Amino acid sequence: MNLQHLKGYFDYNATTPISEGVALSMQPAINLFANPSSPNRYSVNSHAAISQARDNIADLLSTDARKIFFTSGGSEANNWAIKGVLFKHLNNPGHIITSSMEHPSVLDTVRYCVEELGFRATYLQPDAAGHIKISDFESALTIDTQLVSVMYANNETGAIQPIEQLCSIAAEYKIPVHVDAVQFVGKRLIDVELLGVDFLSLSAHKFYGPKGVGCLYIKDKDAIGPLIHGGGQEFSMRSGTENLVAMSGISVAAEEANRELVYWDSHCFRLKKQMMDLLEAAPIALAFNGATDYDSALSNTLNISIDGIRGEALALRLEILHGFIISVGSACSNNKTKQLSHVLMAMGLTEERVLGAIRVSFGCFTDAQQVSKFVDALVTEVQQLLHISGGEAL
Amino acid sequence: MYNDIIIDNFSNPKFVGDLESADYKFEIGNPVCGDRIHMQVSFDGDYIRESRFRAWGCATSVATANIFCGSIIGKSVNEISARKNSEISDMLGELEPSQQHCINILSELHRELSLAVSLEEG
After folding, report:
1. CA-to-CA distance for A52 and A36, rounded, in angstroms?
2. What does the pLDDT read at residue A393?
3. Is the CB of residue A333 less than 8 Å away from at least one CB of chain B?
4. How many CB atoms lie within 10 A of CB A47?
5. Residue A308: its chain B contacts at CB < 8 A?
6. What is the helix, strand, coil percentage profile of chain A, to 5?
7. Coil, strand or helix: which one is B36?
8. ipTM, 2 decimals?
9. I need a surface site. Which of A116, A193, A308, B35 has the fewest CB within 10 A?
């Protein structure tokens, strides 16, 4: 596989490139034209492709294939889990617990349920390391809490939430737990049965699969309503003729993740340590936002605030002058509002530190030489921006 | 996405710095996004001889400051003040909605230059 075009890519949490194996699996799937639901002989291969994909994802999550339901991606899975559970309580809308640092597909869905359907929500606040506290969760529980929805790992900081403890407590009160694991699946080992989660969302394009396909793990399908009524596909939970090309892609992506995940994780953690060491030795003032140790945060993610510069400006200089792609959580929005990272703000960072933040995320195609070149470029461009602002002469 | 005018002026801003003897200095800021631009201008008779800036802000606002500096050198304040809104807007090229606030920044730079000179003369 030609990796030259990925040399400057440091934005794996936004999306990952498709692996060679995934790409090779999708090309022949274009010819799987037969409707998997049809009873004719052409449909056998189509049906087999879906079953294989479901099996591979189930293996990745250490669960039964019958609990895997395909979606168009993480946002759909998140919407389905929340609305699917809460719509069962429309006659008696109660309480939801989530966190203030969730993905918009969770926050906006919860807000919709609150504003339009009469539910109430408690938003758990992360601490400075980016973690919610179990004691806050326990305090938030009410007699009519009907759903908990908390992400496994944060997309901006990589902070890993105490999901196992949270599930254990929620189970005592028989409250269903949905986990948005879009950033976690494919990066760390996961066993949904041991975890005790009721619903879990994932998305293929976060682990070298194609865009437009994901899954919702559903422990008990009686606990949630169908997303799409119709022809009965996905065990009558999400009707519609299946996207076999995308399913073939996620199938191989899940298989590769299951096989390579431990290696990818240790590879990324080595790169993360290397980048942290280089940055800490660099002649610029910076701070890491959120936890950075192995147990508390993803191995591939670093969120960095640099004093005296705007993250947005740094990201553009890194791209146009050095070819590096990173992400920023804050940007100009329009004349009247600014778009500050809701995650970093919830962690209590000052506005200046949020404006100076960038997110760097690695993947299996990143190497140590790229990390070294990236840090050199970052230092050069920070100094240039400080020169422009008058903060420090070159 | 950023247009070529913004990229050129942001990636290699020629007018960053301080003048040894500035005739006028003024500063503008955007209270919403926090952008700050500090301008220095020197005159040769009625015409602007040199202009330099320092800026803290997004890429487009840094580029805006550089574009302004380049556009006023060799011009009189009267010529600069006579620019229409559409001319000012065109100086930045096509902008994304999130970059539109820089048209206001550029307009304010024009206003502040006229104001600084008129206050000094008045």
Report:
1. 13
2. 39
3. yes
4. 17
5. 56
6. 45, 15, 40
7. strand
8. 0.93
9. A116
Short-list A204, A203, A205, A178, CA closest to A192: A178
Among B32, B58, B100, beta carbon nearest to A313: B58
pLDDT-derived band at A115, boundaries 50, 70, 90: very high
Residue whose entry in the numeric block shows the structure tokens 């670093």: A302
| Residue A177, SS3 per DSSP | strand
Q: Which residue has the tokens 């989530």?
A: A98
By the CB < 8 Å criterion, does B11 face chain A? yes
Residue of B nearest to A340 (CA): B33
The predicted structure's pLDDT at residue B101: 83
A260 pLDDT more than 80 = yes
φ and ψ of A203, to 5 deg: -140, 130
Which amino acid is residue A4, in one-letter code? Answer: Q
Distances in Å between the Cα of A366 and the Cα atoms of A12, A17, A192, A275, A370 are: 10, 12, 29, 12, 7
C-alpha closest to that of A244 among A1, A21, A25, A19: A25
Rounded distance between C-alpha atoms, residue A110 and residue A125, angstroms = 16
Which pLDDT belongs to residue A302? Answer: 98
End-to-end CA distance of chain B: 43
Which CA distances in Å does A105 have to A111, A261, A387, B5? Answer: 10, 26, 40, 35
In chain A, DSSP assigns E strands to 68-71, 95-99, 120-124, 145-151, 177-180, 199-203, 214-218, 286-288, 301-306, 331-332, 338-339, 357-361
Tell me which of B33, B53, B106 to substitute to probe the interface with A (most A C-beta atoms closer than 10 Å): B33
- The β-bridge partners of A218 are A199
pTM of the model: 0.94
B97 touching chain A per CB within 8 A? yes
Contacts of B104 in chain A (CB under 8 A): 335
Q: What is the CA radius of gyration of chain B?
A: 14
Whether chain A has a CB inside 8 Å of the CB on B118: the answer is no
Shortest CA distance from B102: residue in chain A: A335
Considering the candidates A113, A167, A215, A332, report the single residue annotated as catalytic: A332
- pLDDT surpassing 60 at residue A319: yes
Signed CA dihedral, A269, A376, A348, A97: sign only:
negative
Spatial neighbors of B18 by CB under 8 A, at least 6 apart, are A390, B40, B52, B54
Does residue A60 surpass a pLDDT of 50? Answer: yes
Q: Report the sign of the C-alpha dihedral through residues A179, A185, A190, A191, in that order.
A: positive
Closest Cα in chain B, distance from residue A319 (Å):
10
